[in-house]
Structures
1.
Amino acid sequence: MTRLIALLLALCCCASAGATESYGLPKIDIGKGGECVKDPKWMRKNHMHLLFEQRDKTVHKGIRDEKLSLKNCIECHASTKDNSVLGRADSFCEGCHRYEAVKIDCFECHSSKRSSAMVQRDH
Ligand code: HEC
Ligand code: HEC
Ligand code: HEC
């Protein structure tokens, strides 16, 4: 019994020591790399609040912050394979949301592609 517990503990430790994920998330393509606009741990839990706040500031008050714009997130987080944050099981925004069963409509209006590598697609 104690051996079983020790084994389970060891497994848990190994799992949480994994590179970017800590709760069983399949590996997600982080994109270009660099440094996130806030602490990644904080971002994991709070990115939606940051985005909504930024949207409200821009749309209602005309206050822009290029660094916190959705476009800037995409510039960094779009995969280096297809320049997108959508479309695959490991795509940054979609991959994590699929896994967490979250639905967002942001990309009906906002581009999901890195602008420096515009590939003509549906529009
Ligand atoms: C300059 C590049 C860069 C920009 C700009 C950027 N990020 Fe990040 N972000 C990163 C990197 C690199 C990581 C991963 C850090 C790690 O796992 O060690 C990260 C981590 C994250 C995470 C946590 C991922 C996880 O696996 O837990 C979220 C969520 C996130 N970013 C969302 C955003 C959003 C939303 C924006 C725009 C407001 C944004 N990021 C802008 C580089 C960036
Ligand atoms: C119906 C279209 C539409 C949808 C859907 C939409 N947006 Fe926007 N969003 C806009 C428009 C238009 C602006 C203003 C653009 C400008 O002034 O640059 C904007 C501005 C923003 C901004 C501030 C400017 C910027 O470039 O970052 C953020 C952040 C933002 N939206 C986030 C979101 C998020 C997050 C979602 C999904 C939950 C979303 N939007 C869904 C149309 C939309
Ligand atoms: C590490 C996993 C992860 C990544 C990566 C991630 N998200 Fe999320 N996102 C979540 C989770 C989990 C929720 C739901 C949180 C909740 O319900 O409290 C969420 C919720 C959201 C919401 C709010 C949805 C709503 O209607 O309330 C928006 C907007 C959003 N994410 C945008 C993004 C964008 C844009 C990206 C890519 C730049 C992204 N997320 C990347 C995990 C992630």
Note: The chain has four helices and no strands.
2.
Amino acid sequence: MDEILFRALDERVRGHLDEVDRLAATTHPARTAVELHRLTTAWRTLLDLHTPTATRRTNRCPVCRTPGMCPVWKVATAIFVP
Ligand SMILES: [Zn+2]
């Protein structure tokens, strides 16, 4: 995937997760906010594991090491980028 496109998608997806955390902290009961934060943390961790590196050699996902978009990022983009 083109690095400029990836950076734009990364910014949009992570920005959406940040917004969910902000909304949860201000508008939901504590228990719901905790669970939403757990979900956004899980997504961030998954995205980190599937973020292509400059050399693509340190990433263990075989798809991330190819020019195409990793399925994890396809799902994240479909869900979090309107
Ligand atoms: Zn991947």
Note: The chain has a mean pLDDT of 87.
3.
Amino acid sequence: MGNRISKKSLEDEVKEALGKNKEALAAAKIQEYLDKEKNIPLNIAITGESGSGKSSFVNAIRGVDDDDEEEAARTGVVETTEVSRAYPHPCFSNVTLWDLPGVGTMKFPAAKYLKLVGFERFDFFIIISADRFRENDVKLGKEIQRMGKNFYFVRSKTDQDIRNEKSRMKKSIRYFSEEKILEQIRENCTQGLQKQGFQCPQVFLVSSHKPHLYDFPDLLRTLERELPEHKKNAFLLAMPNTSLEMIDRKKKAFKSQIKYVATLSAAVAAVPVPGLSAVVDVGLLVTVVTQYVSGLGLSISSLKRLSNYSGVYIEDLKEVIVSPLAATKITPELVLKTMSQTAILPALLIAEEGSKFMLIIGIPLSMALSFTFTYKALNLFLNDLSEDAKRVLQKVLV
Ligand SMILES: Nc1nc2c(ncn2[C@@H]2O[C@H](COP(=O)(O)OP(=O)(O)O)[C@@H](O)[C@H]2O)c(=O)[nH]1
Ligand SMILES: [Mg+2]
């Protein structure tokens, strides 16, 4: 991975710089590392025939409302142009969803289609269909495989099938089992694909209107697992919360960076400047906390979307939120105020890990206080925000 910085070499370099009293150099090294992590590009291609639910899926993945005039991919419209459209994630600009025209719309064979849409840039493909998969879908899948990339069959609008079947069953007073219906849809899709020559195709049944149901959580988990190591976190953090377990993994990903952020913040503070910035690098903390809030789905816009698709009032979602950092605009004043409140809390276990890291990396005494303070505060923020995220999701899951 050419220009990636491994954690080991980063820590060695920072240690060396600190050993020579070069705080600014240590800070620059960490900043470079964090910037690289934040800018890892991820390009996800969504393809399927017109009406199959591509644009809705693009919105669901980005946590954007279908009727958001600025951010949303327009849904329910027949594509008249044969162009791909890029939709950057509203909070994680390194992640881009591509709404591609269906291979049928283009009237080209799969290989030529892939060339035209520029397949090299994509990390993987989602082939989406609202019913059976067609010959076109299968040919495309095979061609993607041949090109050495991953693709996934996604069956959209599962909520609609369930609803239809439910009302049909009611009329005939038969016993309704959601599991059975899901099994039938899965069976249909799989058999169709097998007939076309796919041995054991996996099909994910999803609803873009209810991304915490059916196979949506499993789809996200699978995509994450099958990405190369250095792209996993970039993907995970940008995805909507579809399970409690996912929130824990997001927390872990954020947590693993706190020691670096704390070192950076302290290194800046070690250079004596008057005022607040002498203690911590507030600008940096605003950036980091904003990432926590967005990544954990606690921004105002994420909550709005969650409320819209779940039907739970936004006030009811906000009611379970405890952290003052959630559901609001993160400003330097807010971060400082919240930090000052944590300063009086007793040291937690987490501070111990922090002390170990200080020893490993050779944090000088001049930076120790600031490091510990930042380290503790960010851990507490992250704990509180992930608990909030879980409580919010639980409101929707019940
Ligand atoms: N109930 C339900 N409707 C959906 C779902 N996905 C898409 N739709 C609807 O199906 C229609 C076509 O969806 P759209 O995303 O525009 O498809 P595209 O043409 O492939 O981009 C729209 O009216 C969507 O609201 C879904 O998961 N559940
Ligand atoms: Mg569309």
Note: The longest strand covers residues 42-47.
